[in-house]
């Protein structure tokens, strides 16, 4: 009985000792040290957040200074123009057209969207662009300039009608569809039509000698270059940690009119609105917001400041901020590292106090547990027992050595398997690439052979057809001369025969141009593209008269092109006829010519646009292929192919942009005549 009692009491005393040792080792580390760490982490987190707010405040200062610099620079440039000898000489000695030309040239040099001269009565004397109406003359900056102040600048909000009075293009650019935004103030509006303008005016002299004001402005709506410049200044490369993203935004009231915040990949968040809390604080109370805020679809460390117009009214906001998540992740990672370090230190310290006890009851438990983990698949499990002179210690060390060897063999097998898989993937990928190249080359060879065969056949067929055509035309003339006045009785029939023979001749000529384009290269000379387009309109007037088509022309090209005039007319007429056919129910035909550079080479562009049925992406890909036509019975499919050949022969290019039910625009680019 005594032995039995001893065998029962021994485990109880062993457990009691184990628990007391654990309590002595763990209580200070698991109670006192966690409290100290918690207080330190709380204080560090507060300082970290304050540093972020301080940084975004500095970022807002840089953005504010850049906007102020834009305002100042615009005013200085307009003032410099009004005082320049060049401006005064043109104003006093040359015609009003020369003043207009100088204003347009200066507007482009300064980078303004509009520039005009207004007298004391509010009448526009001259403008850089043709105004569509009468712009307002009672702006505070204009009154200040007319009253004697040298230069006046500021931000003003133009209504859509006020922008349209200057330029419909500006009015359209200011228009933004509002995007439903979470947390924003509810609104019934669906569109933002007003425009935020950097507005500047300088005192000048009217042509008659009276006081006047030189007024210019830059529309900030959808001015992505302006907002991207702010973003590049504030958030230069490596100014934020990896994963963070700096953003800048310009608000008109609470609507984003210029931003690099992304609504989703590839689209900026134009038309989205700021949250109600930020709007109330910044626009309602006039405070600068420096705090975390929800921006479109994520949380940002944000800074907002109100923008005031020349009337002293808060009309918008300037915003900069950076993504908050990377910093939260960094804080979480830091706290996690501290916690892990605490756990590691705890795990390393406790065994010091329990080493003697563990040397008695833990070795066998560790060996058993390790074997169990290995059996369950964890080959990295080890006893990690120190070498000792007793039998249990030697068994544990030997077991760890055997497990190391087993894990090393397993690692080598996995590496060999991965290497084999990699080689198989590489060889498979190389084979697939080779097959794709072979297939593409085969298709190209087949197409080349087909086109060569078609060219030869076409040249032969065209030659054979020309002879019967000549005979038919000659005999038709003989019949007219033989029957004399009797020919008038069949005048309609004779005319139809002439037209059809002429049509056959034209088709034959197009076939020959496609088959042997080098034989049809005519004499090249220099032309103004606008005059060529103008000469083409009478040739297609009979087609324009058949339907209600409004022709809009815009000739802004100042350069000349070097090309055979007949060939260039053929290209333009072909594009115009295609555009007319695409608008059977009427529409707008737009003909534009302007200077354009391509790959650093100067040249001109001729655009032919329509508002017709448009083309799908599949048709656009084939539209320049020989014999491809969407007109069915009316077309030969050679017009665009021949036009492309003629243009490419002059080192030019034809491109097309089209969408179904949205019309098409063909652009012909030709190098400038040297």
TrEMBL record:
Q: Membrane topology for this entry?
A: Multi-pass membrane protein
Write down the PROSITE patterns for this protein, in alphabetical order.
HAMP (PS50885), HIS_KIN (PS50109)
Instruction: List the Pfam families hit by this protein, alphabetically.
Output: HAMP, HATPase_c, HisKA, sCache_3_3
Start and end of every HAMP domain?
358-411
EC number(s) for this protein? 2.7.13.3
Origin superkingdom:
Bacteria
Q: Which reactions is this enzyme annotated as catalysing?
A: ATP + protein L-histidine = ADP + protein N-phospho-L-histidine
Q: Is the keyword Metal-binding in the record?
A: no
Q: Which UniProt keywords apply?
A: Cell membrane, Kinase, Membrane, Phosphoprotein, Transferase, Transmembrane, Transmembrane helix
- The transmembrane residues are 21-44, 335-354
Task: Cite the SMART domains for this sequence.
Answer: HAMP (SM00304), HATPase_c (SM00387), HisKA (SM00388)
InterPro entries documented for this protein: HAMP_dom, HATPase_C_sf, HATPase_dom, His_kinase_dom, HisK_dim/P_dom, HisK_dim/P_sf, sCache_3, Sensor-like_sf
Q: Output the Gene Ontology terms for molecular function.
A: phosphorelay sensor kinase activity
Q: Where in the cell is it found?
A: Cell membrane
* Signal peptide region: none
Top EC group: transferase
Domain Histidine kinase, by residue range, is 460-674
Indicate where this protein is primarily found.
Answer: membrane
Q: What is one term from the GO cellular component aspect held by the record?
A: plasma membrane
State the protein's name: histidine kinase
């Amino acid at each position: 009985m005594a032995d039995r009692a001893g065998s029962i009491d021994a485990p109880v005393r062993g457990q009691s000792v184990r628990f007391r040792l654990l309590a002595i080792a763990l209580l200070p580390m698991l109670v006192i040290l966690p409290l100290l760490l918690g207080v330190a982490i709380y204080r560090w987190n507060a300082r970290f957040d304050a540093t972020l707010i301080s940084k975004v405040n500095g970022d807002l200062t840089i953005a504010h200074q850049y906007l102020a610099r834009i305002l100042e620079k615009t005013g200085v440039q307009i003032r410099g123009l009004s005082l320049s000898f060049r401006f005064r000489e043109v104003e006093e000695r040359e015609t009003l057209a020369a003043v207009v030309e100088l204003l347009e040239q200066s507007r482009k040099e300064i980078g303004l969207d509009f520039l005009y001269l207004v007298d004391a009565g509010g009448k526009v004397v001259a403008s850089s662009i043709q105004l569509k109406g009468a712009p307002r003359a009672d702006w505070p900056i204009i009154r200040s300039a007319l009253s004697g102040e040298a230069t006046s600048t500021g931000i003003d909000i133009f209504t859509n009608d006020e922008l349209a009075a200057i330029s419909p293009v500006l009015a359209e650019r200011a228009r933004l569809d509002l995007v439903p935004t979470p947390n924003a103030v509810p609104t019934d509006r669906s569109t933002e039509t007003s425009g935020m303008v950097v507005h500047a005016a300088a005192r000048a002299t009217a042509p008659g000698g009276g006081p006047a004001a030189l007024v210019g402005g830059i529309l900030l709506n959808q001015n992505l270059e302006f907002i991207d410049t702010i973003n590049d200044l504030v958030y230069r490369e490596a100014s934020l940690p990896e994963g963070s993203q700096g953003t800048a935004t310009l608000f008109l009231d609470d609507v984003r009119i210029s931003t690099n915040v992304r609504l989703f990949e590839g689209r900026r968040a134009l038309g989205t609105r700021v949250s109600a809390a930020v709007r109330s604080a910044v626009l309602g109370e006039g405070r600068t917001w420096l705090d975390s805020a929800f921006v479109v679809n994520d949380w940002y460390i944000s800074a907002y400041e109100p923008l005031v117009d020349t009337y002293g009214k808060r009309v918008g906001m300037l915003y900069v901020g950076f993504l908050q998540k990377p910093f939260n992740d960094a804080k979480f990672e830091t706290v996690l590292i501290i916690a892990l370090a605490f756990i590691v230190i705890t795990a390393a310290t406790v065994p010091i106090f329990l080493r003697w006890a563990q040397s008695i009851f833990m070795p066998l438990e560790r060996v058993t547990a390790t074997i169990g983990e290995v059996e369950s698949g964890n080959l990295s499990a080890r006893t990690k027992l120190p070498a000792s002179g007793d039998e249990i210690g030697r068994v544990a060390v030997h077991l760890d050595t055997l497990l190391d060897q087993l894990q090393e063999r397993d690692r080598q097998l996995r590496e060999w398997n991965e290497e084999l898989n990699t080689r198989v993937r590489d060889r498979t990928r190389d084979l697939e690439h080779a097959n794709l190249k072979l297939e593409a080359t085969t298709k190209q060879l087949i197409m080349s052979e087909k086109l060569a065969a078609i060219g030869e056949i076409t040249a032969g067929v065209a030659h054979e057809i020309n002879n019967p055509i000549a005979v038919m035309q000659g005999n038709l003339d003989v019949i007219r001369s033989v029957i004399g006045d009797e020919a008038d009785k069949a005048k309609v029939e004779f005319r139809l025969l002439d037209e059809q023979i002429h049509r056959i001749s034209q088709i034959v000529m197009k076939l020959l141009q496609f088959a042997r384009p080098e034989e049809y290269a005519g004499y090249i000379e220099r032309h103004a593209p606008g005059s060529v387009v103008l000469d083409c309109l009478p040739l297609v007037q009979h087609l324009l008269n058949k339907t209600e088509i409004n022709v809009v022309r815009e000739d802004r090209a100042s350069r000349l092109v070097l090309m055979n005039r007949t060939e260039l007319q053929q290209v333009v007429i072909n594009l115009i006829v295609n555009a007319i056919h695409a608008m059977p129910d009427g529409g707008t035909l737009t003909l534009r010519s302007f200077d354009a550079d391509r790959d650093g080479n100067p040249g001109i562009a001729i655009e032919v646009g329509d508002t017709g049925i448009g083309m799908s992406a599949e048709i656009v890909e084939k539209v320049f292929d020989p014999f491809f036509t969407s007109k069915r019975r009316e077309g030969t499919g050679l017009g665009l192919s021949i036009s492309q050949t003629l243009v490419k022969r002059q080192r030019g290019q034809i491109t097309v942009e089209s969408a179904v039910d949205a019309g098409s625009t063909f652009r012909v680019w030709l190098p400038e005549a040297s």
